[in-house]
């Protein structure tokens, strides 16, 4: 640029004076322009990780993923680079109406065996379950019922239906029972709220027939099942809120995809940076 202007009769210092740029600043940037960016590879890796995790990770989680790959980088540096690259997690929490399946006492009300003791070092010892509702495009709704293991936060099984029928909870329960029969080292407890599904004779009898303890939250006390509420919050924050409404089948596909990702790839700090499945596999290898 400077050389072209000089051929036409303009002097560089005169041009810089007109545009208000110091000559030293001009030469500094001219020199930097031809230099290789020393952070190019790091920036490419951070961008790759951000996209790999579906733009759901902020700088703290990206820093942990870099550490897992052997790159020990200060989180402030990762924050700066992500800010420069415009890589920002734009998923935010917002209030959503909670599905309430309580219809009064229509069956058996079990005692609260968990009493908010949500941690356990034993797989399949304490399981929690609940139902949440999603709005789809048009007038349709989607109902999700997962069963979560408090040992590692893994979703053992789940049901998805257009209506909150009894099958919504019975189908994942039967899947979970098969897992319990093959892998549970101790007697299992399944905790829920007092929704009509969990008071239903078919649910109660299935638990009793398979020697599973039943546990229930106190009425209108969501903190008694905080682990399940936390999962619903994370799921909706990371793949539902802020997105355009889609039809039932598309939302069903996205939820299935998310739960697989949550189980197999999404790292958790309390699991030493591993995903639920990685933690379970790692622990079983150590035990062997």
UniProtKB/TrEMBL annotation:
A Pfam family recorded for this sequence: HTH_21
Superkingdom: Bacteria
Coiled-coil regions, chain positions: none
Annotated InterPro entries: HTH-like_dom, Integrase_cat-core, RNaseH-like_sf, RNaseH_sf, Transpos_IS3, Transposase_IS3/IS150/IS904
Domain Integrase catalytic: 117-284
Biological role stated in the UniProt entry: Involved in the transposition of the insertion sequence.
Name listed for the protein in its UniProt record: IS3 family transposase
């Amino acid at each position: 640029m400077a050389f072209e202007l000089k051929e036409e009769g303009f002097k560089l210092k005169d041009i810089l004076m007109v545009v208000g740029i110091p000559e030293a600043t001009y030469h500094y940037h001219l020199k930097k322009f031809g230099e290789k960016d020393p952070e190019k590879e790091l920036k490419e890796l951070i961008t790759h990780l951000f996209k790999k995790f579906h733009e759901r990770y902020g700088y703290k989680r990206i820093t942990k993923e870099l550490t897992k790959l052997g790159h020990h980088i200060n989180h402030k540096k990762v924050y700066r680079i992500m800010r420069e690259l415009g890589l920002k997690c734009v998923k935010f929490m917002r209030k959503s109406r909670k599905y309430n399946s309580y219809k009064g006492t229509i069956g058996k009300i079990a005692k609260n065996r968990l009493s908010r003791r949500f941690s356990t070092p034993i797989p399949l010892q304490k399981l929690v379950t609940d139902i949440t509702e999603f709005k789809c495009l048009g007038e349709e709704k989607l109902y999700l019922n997962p069963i979560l293991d408090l040992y590692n936060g893994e979703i053992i099984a789940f049901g998805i239906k257009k209506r909150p029928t009894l099958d919504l909870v019975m189908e994942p329960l039967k899947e979970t029972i098969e897992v319990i029969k093959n892998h549970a080292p101790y007697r299992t407890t399944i905790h829920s709220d007092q929704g009509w599904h969990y008071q239903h004779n078919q649910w109660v009898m299935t638990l009793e027939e398979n020697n599973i303890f039943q546990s229930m939250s106190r009425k209108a006390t969501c903190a008694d099942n905080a682990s399940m509420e936390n999962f619903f919050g994370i799921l909706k924050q990371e793949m539902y809120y802020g997105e355009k409404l889609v039809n039932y089948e598309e939302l069903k596909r996205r939820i299935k995809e998310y739960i697989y990702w949550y189980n197999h790839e999404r790292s958790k700090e309390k699991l030493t940076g591993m995903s639920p499945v990685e933690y379970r596999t790692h622990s079983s290898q150590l035990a062997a």
